[in-house]
Amino acid sequence: MRLSINQKIMLLMTVMFLIFAGSITAVQGYYVMQLLTHETHAHSAEYISKATDLVADAVLTENLYKARNQILDFTSGNPEIAYLFIINDRKKILAHSFLNGFPRDMFKVIDQTEVERGRPLILETERGRIMHSRATLLSPRVGSIHLGVYVSQTQGRLFSILYYAFKAIGVMMIVCLIAT
Which of 38, 96, 115, 126 is most deeply buried (CB count within 10 A of its CB)? Predict the structure, then answer.
């Protein structure tokens, strides 16, 4: 079967469109992952700032019961937050949001964040990926505040935006194919 010139042009246009759409999808996927990391890190910084403001007085006055209750209130109202804890400069746990006690494996994370100062860590857990961030609590002598944020929460919002973008591209492709 021989193809007419119009069919050949149409086939060439379809192949070019698929290559173009595939390359745009790949580039967009890369930038979405960069945006995901940046957005989750921005949320972590915002949450750490709010938590620091919330518990600073209780930690300074050594009212650790009040600090723990404030942390539990803060984390229970936000499904994005996996955990929050405060340690002093001697690595003693002052307050935390873990309901079943402070996990021993978290001490490894504390040591690793000491090395990676300022850079968030991505932890793989049974409940999903968590971005662990650390910030100084008022001054290094007071201690530090550690926060874990579920990456999947932010990822879900970004992927819903992508879903509608790809849906629009698909509709445009179908309209172009029908029009020709």
Answer: 96
